Amino acid sequence: MTQARSWDIGHDNNDGVAIILDPQNQRLNGFFFVLNAFNAQSEDQLHYGTEPTYSWDNKWFSATRRLSDRWTAEIAIPFKSLRYSLENKLWGINFVRIDQKTFEYSTWTHVPVNFKSYDLGYNGALIWDDPPPKPGSNTVLIPYMTGGLSQDKENNIPSKFNFNAGFDSKMAITSALNLDLTINPDFSQVEVDKQVTNLTRYSIFLPEKRSFFLENSDLFGGYGIPGLISPFYSRTIGLDKNGNRIPIIGGARLSGDISKSTRIGIMNMQTASQGDYFADNYSAVSVNQNVMKRSVIKGYFLNRQSFAPDSVKQSDPLSKWGRNAGLEFDYNNLQGTWNGWGSYHQSFKPGITSDDKYMEAGGTYNNRHLSTTIDVVSMGTNYYTDMGYVQRINNYDASRDTTIRVGFKHIYADISYKFLPAKGNVDQHLLDFNTYTVFNPDNSLNEQDLTLKYSINFRNTSGINAILSSNAVNLLYPISFTGQTPLPKGNYQYAQLALGYGSDTRRVFSFAINLGGGSFYNGTLKTVSGAILWRSQPHVNLSIQAEYDKLIFPDVYGSTELILISPKIEINFSTKLFWTTFLQYNTQQNNYNINSRFQYRFRPMSDLFLVYTDNYYTTPFLKNKNRAIVFKLNYWLNL
Question: pTM for the full model?
Fold first, then answer.
């Protein structure tokens, strides 16, 4: 057997098989191992309520054989790659067969169609005659060295050569508890963030891609509302607001199970000073206690401590330190049809004693046809998250070029109904209505979005959708979408219609297109977006995503055209040799980025990377900002 990495392509749009393991049999957390017919592997940790991202990596082995009328797979998963209790003789297990030709997902146990095939609540039973074997010594050392040539014309920094070295280490404290250590980590091989056109008034949430922060990441990041409110957001450690790296001196993280029903996470990270950023120490503690049959009580404490000079702390007292603590209760019935949650979060800052809380409550119901959700939030203006992310709390005032914190309350409600025809070419009709209403601290209306969506999914994986939205905004501070005179504060109402079509994703060539338009504040917005994918399996994937937005506002408020084009070329020479080139042309960010990455996996979990990155202005056209070429060598050493 050989280990295949490829590009963590997942289980959708591929002919494949998957194994799901839940060693604690709590139906809340587990492991997902996926293999396609060309022996390309993907793996991830599963957490209830979230979808796989395939960002978690570990060592396992597989081989496939393709015949004229079938294919076979052989899989070996080392016990060292799992986290489990030696006393637990009952594991959850399931098997998934993905047949893209017929667009069918078959599972070993029955999983209702309103749940994902990898849902942990419907696993079968793996019963050990004797307790599972002790995995033995499980300590891994991953040293690395990196070097490269860089040039920064934007800041008039001449070309220079850099060399660096460090290591990561994984140590199994018990079979279910792991200690991760990192000294001078380097993430130069991480693919660049995917850029998007932002027509909101707030910053965009970007996912974590750095491997050190990914294992058991739900222990720290599983609080709040993903993408909207997160008390802990790992990108605040070692990255500035623009995604530029801040050196991390080192860190440690202990995570896993200390009993069948209790999980813990303890993390400490130390960053160095760089530019306008002073050194910081970050600490996080989280405990998850499983209760009832499929529910959990969670609690956390976070602390950021600044090493800035006293003069800076005196001029900006809030920069001294920031702390957060909170409790959450997530209820799930055994079948997964009912889900409810309630939470209380408290922030601590020097001199602040009021309006510093975040509270939330809500629930969902999901059956074969009907799905409903309601969520209620109260966010205090003085709720600070030095280690987190809150999308709406910072409001930019374009007239004064400053940011003002404003708390809010929101109510989100959604109801959808699925029609599942027994015969014909249509797989599903979906009708969905949701409303999102935001109130200011004085309970006056801040914003309300009403959205009605109708979609048809066909059995050949193609689909059509239509979305009608109506928006009402009480703009608190002037904002500009064109770079010209900001729109004045006040009340705005506007509506938009969008239509979309996606073709059969099983084909060698597939595409999607979306058309939208309507009013936008006191102007108009027209949008065209789409994607094209061409695949020559198993070696080549060529894709391009593009978006064009035209905004027209009256008189001095200006007009603009925003263009985002993102081609991507993936070449898999084998299951050990890969080359990916990602281009991004974004006029909103005035940036054209080239990121080309070559990877050679010379042995399991050991890689040689060669990365070339280049950034240009789009205006003036293709004037260079900076460029670099970097190599990195890391070696996975089992001790």
Answer: 0.88
